[in-house]
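User: I'm curious whether this sequence folds into something compact or stays loose and floppy. Could you predict its structure so I can see for myself?
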Amino acid sequence: MATPNQAAAPANEMTDEDRQRMRFRKAMGRKKRRDREAEGEIRELNITAMMDLMTIILVFLIKSFSASSITVTASEDVRLPLSSARSTPKDTVAITITAKSIMVGDKRKVELTNALVKPSDAQGKLIMPLDAALKFEVEKLKKIAERNPSAPFNREVSIIGDKKVPYDLLSSVLYTAGQNELENFRLIILQKNPD
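Assistant: Here's the prediction. I'll summarize afterward.
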């Protein structure tokens, strides 16, 4: 039976029992939500899977690096001579000779005037700025060879020269390379199309 106080309460007001039920439902909803979120959490790191992934990436990078070939920077200044040779170029120290400059790799090291070295840059047949750049490259290759036995210092240099480079300039470049322990020369050419 209802007491007079309960009977007088309007129908839209909640009783203490209803409030407790609502709090209980909210608490249960929060608990279920926390449990669902906790299922997706990573509580500890699986280092084995991460090491497997890093090993696969490392092998892929090493394979793709070793499969790359020498890159020859093409420019308007360099027109390579043609040949019927079939050997492929190796990745070595690259010296590019044009009528305007001498580059080591892709960095311009010596400015030329009409395919001639300025007298201030030469000491006999030795080209001083080229000598300094090659010393740096040779030291870098020797350090790599010390740390990596699979990449020995093979004393090779690739000469990428315009077909109109004078022999005296080519001779001076080869002399300078020889003074820096680069004794094996490779002249980069374009292969003729067999007709």
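Summary: The chain has five helices and ten strands. The mean pLDDT is 77.
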